[in-house]
Amino acid sequence: MSKPVVAARGVRRAYGAVAALGGVDLSVNDGEIFGIIGPDGAGKTTLFRILTTLLLADSGEVSVDGFDAVREYREIRKRIGYMPGRFSLYQDLTVEENLKFFATVFGTTIAENYDLIADIYRQIEPFKKRRAGALSGGMKQKLALSCALIHRPRVLFLDEPTTGVDPVSRKEFWDMLSRLRDGGITILVSTPYMDEAARCDRVALIREGRFLQTDSPEGIGRSYRGRLVAIRGPRMYAMLKDVRSFPGIRSAFPFGDSIHAGFDADGDRAREVERWLRDKGHGEARAEPIEAGIEDCFLSLSDEGESGRNAV
Fold this sequence. Notes:
2 domains, 11 helices, Rossmann fold
């Protein structure tokens, strides 16, 4: 079995009394898109900064492409591309000037690796004389990705790359990532968007500095043990309070225009919860069984973790 391209074991990091990472284990295979999914403050950015050698862990071990993150950090930096969550290119330089600068830093040229960024750069090339600070959100992200790729990295780290980007640009961005993966680049990406998580080969759910579960998107959905019900009706938040008081309920949270409620895997929970809600004055409540997805598993893990129960 080949060694993982990115590996972490027992990684911990605290900021004073606040534990950002509480013992993270990670293994990313060659040529996969690996997603790290979690809310703000879960520890995603701290983990990315440690993996990219920009921050030291308090304890634990990290390696990237076979090199130790402490002793051999210079070698790692030659082999990775990193796109932080906040746009960090030089806003007073033009698109072309930014790309030339990053190529020079890594001892290469735009022409040498143009084939790698061509699909992305062609979309912003008409604006190559425009200052980066004047670009739209989607164009900024495409420029940042081009700069992260210009030296042909072995591993690409993307920290919430599409936050604040319009839906069309998000889809285009992920189409590009799929092509890069197919071209042999290993990609680690963090995202708060569950539709993006579904496009990863594997995902890890992170909350409060700990991985809750790691699997393929389909595997995480299948791992949900119990019966999931979608509930719809008026006065949803009042109804949510009553759903959470249903005997034996395991989790309940808003999900779009409905409430997703998790129960133990026995009985017709949809009909039982409908009757319960009608007795509580929610005469228009409707419930139906549904299959669990990534978001259901993550939200139920978070919801039940707060009340001391396990969801999956």
